[in-house]
Amino acid sequence: MKLSSKKNEFGTAALYCRLSRDDNMDTESNSIQNQKKILQKAAKEKGYTDTLFFVDDGITGTTMNRPGFQKMIQAIENGYISAVFVKDLSRLGRNYIEVGRLTEEFFPAHDVRLVAVSDGVDSDEGENEFTPFKNIMKNISHSGKGRNDFSLFGRF
After folding, report:
1. Which helix (H) or strand (E) holds 135?
2. Total H helices, total E strands in the chain
């Protein structure tokens, strides 16, 4: 892992994978191995050849105190990471306030690019006003307080 020179070189991309036992996502499409393949391919397509995996397997996204996640945050704070790739925003966490803090404050303050492959998010391609909304909806759906048909909004 080399120190990131974010402005002129791609630097090191963190490829973060998380799978919670609570997610009921033990299928091949969401497995850690599949996430790794998706992220490695996306990073390569974006020009990143120096990549580093951070993995939390079997740990809920409702807590930000996950070993792999904390190691990634430390690497960012130490200047080793120039981009973070995740399969989707919910892999970062299920607490939309904390994920919002990361995406809106922490990553920009550390000049870190965020790519959420399945959500079509790439912070280098400009702001996407729907990104926070997508994350909130995923978390409502996951929490069991809403249904995927969005009946929660029927009264509006």
Report:
1. helix 131-143
2. 6, 5
Q: Is 96 left (phi over 0), alpha (psi -120 to 50) or beta?
A: alpha
State both tokens at 68: 């792999």
Give the amino acid at 131: T
Confidence tier at 123 by pLDDT (50, 70, 90)? very high
Q: Do the bridges between strand 113-116 and strand 81-86 make them parallel or antiparallel, or are there none, so unpaired?
A: parallel
Q: Are 140 and 146 in contact (CB under 8 A)?
A: yes
Q: Going by C-beta distance under 8 Å and a sequence separation of 6 or more, which residues neighbour residue 106?
A: 73, 76, 112
Please give the pLDDT value at position 60.
93
pLDDT classification of 3: cutoffs 50, 70, 90 = low
Pair 118, 35: CB distance under 8 Å: no
Instruction: Please state the rounded mean pLDDT for residues 57-71.
Output: 95
